Amino acid sequence: MFAADDADGEKEIPEEGDFDKNGRKKDKVRFLDADQIDGVDNTSRDKGGIRLDDESSDDEADVDLAIQEEGIDEEVGAGGLKKNAPKVEAFNLKQEMEEGQFDQDGNYVRKGGDPDAVHDNWLEGLSKKEMRKAAAAHEKREAEARKQRLEDDEVLVSDLLKTLILNLERAETPLEALARLGKKQTKPKKIPKWKLKKMNKGAEGMEVDGGENIEDAEQKKIKASIGAITEAADKLLSRDHEEIYEQERELLVREYRKETGEDWVEPEASQTNQDEQAAVKPGTMWKFRWVDGRDGNDSQGPYDGATMKAWKDAGYFPEGAVEFREVEEGRDWSLHVDAFE
User: Fold this and answer.
1) Could you give the CA distance from residue 180 to residue 222 in angstroms, rounded to a whole number?
2) Among 7, 141, 150, 222, which residue is least crowded by beta carbons within 10 Å?
3) Measured between alpha carbons, how far apart are the two ends of the chain, in Å?
4) pTM for the full model?
5) Which residue ranges make up each domain of the chain?
6) Residues 261-307: tens digit of each pLDDT
7) What CATH number does the domain located at 277-326 have?
8) Cα separation of 168 and 177, whole Å?
9) Strand partners, 325
């Protein structure tokens, strides 16, 4: 009754890919191995036929003689000579099997192209030396990326949260903080070329190519805050904090408490920050002169306090090399000024 079944009583379960779109079972194609093909001669080689680009030094007399010896019709001419016959390549089964397969009916089925071969197009025309150089550069980049990932992993989540909290205002998100700080950013002040020349008059080894950009302390602080917020938020984003840019400061404080087990303590406003805020006041004008007398001991100025502070922050007044004095009468020259008012 079950004679059609296999000897062990198990039936072959057809796979889903064995049927076409109409539900009919596909005919399985069986491919032959090289040793299953009759008449294979693995020792077959090309017989060295005449190539079309072979140079011929035969003169016309030799060609006519060869035509007479081989009994070739004059209308056929030299093209009928054996030496001018097209090259016939021997059938190389091994090579053919690399490019395709023969099915059980003897039909040759060529293999499909490599779909990823297009990604190797950039290698065309490159020498082995250039490929080795490219591989070495790739390995170097991978090593640097691994090193950077290890360094990033060493930074605790609590430290990243602390950085964000310190740079955010109450009820503010990192995204809102970046927008607030971005509005406060201004272009750096540019010192005119003539003013730089006057400041550096007589200085040796100093070349002035053009105006220099001066970035005051407030702008430096804004720039540093933007960088700190972006770096901390991006690292938290890579650690599955997908909504970090939209979380308010209070939520970050809760996350910090959860990470550390400690309550967040608001830092006290430092006296240094208060001094910096009151450092620059309008109205006071300043002069300066070089201690070594490089400009004939002449004073430069007057300049307002904001300009003098910007130059000092930029490093244009080396310590102990410049004296300062307020324009008001009765003021003495001084090597050190706490704040340009």
Assistant:
1) 10
2) 7
3) 111
4) 0.40
5) 34-110, 154-201+208-265, 277-326
6) 989 888 876 544 554 444 444 567 888 888 877 766 777 778 877 78
7) 3.30.1490
8) 6
9) 287
